Amino acid sequence: MKNLEKHIRERRSVRTFNQRVLTKEDYETLCTFIKKVDNPFGLVVEFCFIENMNCPVVVGTELYVGAKVKNSPYLNEAFGYSFEKFVLYAQSLGIGTVWIGGTMDRTAFEKAMNLKDDEIMPCISPVGYPSEKMSIREMMMRKGVKADERKSFEEIVYLNDFEHPLNPDDAGDLFLPLEMVRLAPSAVNKQPWRMLIQNHFVHFYLERSKNFGGGKIDMQKIDLGIALCHFEIMANDLGISTELIIEKPDVYAKKELEYIASYKLNG
């Protein structure tokens, strides 16, 4: 994907569309892309276009993309990674999206996705061309979650242990991948990711917010999948080779932090 940093910086959640139907070229380009979306967990996330559907927080389009994954360990992280790849690719085409996990008729969408008993459909997204103006509802929703605000770099990135925040000026080649994680979307903009730089590893932790418990559909673990996606694709875009491993590091972390996975930096 060309201009990756630009697409990450410019992308925002879109809930107000201009009612234009996707061009045949854009539709077919998206169709081709969603057939080959992968993730480092090796789980199959199956995407599907859903037509003639509605959602109470979306206006101006009836076309959606849903995705499902079999019930298995790391399903949420794999889903978050793969779905964010789709979101960023849509952004590169000028197509708007928004992560929707709760404000929808889940039964209707799961039926449209032909969901099987062993499959989970955590989220969907409308797709279409953004309207020049947001609806009042959308503006109020963005204001409510402070959608344009992000935690500081030092609040989410640490060096060697969780007592030493990393100054962005000292991040070196890792600054952009880490900064792209900082700018990533998350459920209700809670930004639950924390990263620990240790030797040639970047360890990812979840600092869970209140009222965000676990379960089959774990929105904050989906957020960590989004974070992993942003880090890996930006690092790879810069020529930094990465390898996902799941091996909890030998470091003290306060009990509020849950280890998720690590990237080993090769070369």
Describe the protein's architecture and organization:
This protein is an alpha+beta fold and 267 residues long. It has helices spanning 4-10, 24-34, 75-92, 106-112, 136-144, 153-156, 175-182, 219-237, and strands at residues 45-50, 64-70, 119-120, 124-126, 157-159, 193-198, 201-207, 241-245, 257-266. The protein has 2 domains: 4-137, 3-Layer(aba) Sandwich (NADH Oxidase); 153-266, putative nitroreductase (tm1586), domain 2 (NADH Oxidase, 3-Layer(aba) Sandwich). It is built from 8 helices and 9 strands. The strands form 2 sheets. Strands 5-6-7-9-8 form a 5-stranded mixed β-sheet. β6 (193-198) and β7 (201-207) form a beta hairpin. The protein is globular, with a radius of gyration of 18 Å.
Briefly characterize the structure.
The protein has 267 residues and is of the alpha+beta class.
What fraction strand? 15-25%
User: Would you identify the regions where 5 or more consecutive residues have pLDDT less than 50?
Assistant: none
CATH class group of the largest domain: Alpha Beta
Strand arrangement, largest sheet? 5-6-7-9-8
Structural class: alpha+beta
CATH architecture of the largest domain: 3-Layer(aba) Sandwich
Number of strands: 9
What topology does this entry show?
Elements: H1 4-10, H2 24-34, E1 45-50, E2 64-70, H3 75-92, H4 106-112, E3 119-120, E4 124-126, H5 136-144, H6 153-156, E5 157-159, H7 175-182, E6 193-198, E7 201-207, H8 219-237, E8 241-245, E9 257-266
Parallel strand pairs: 5-6
Antiparallel strand pairs: 1-2, 2-3, 2-4, 6-7, 7-9, 8-9
Helix pairs in contact: 3-8, 7-8
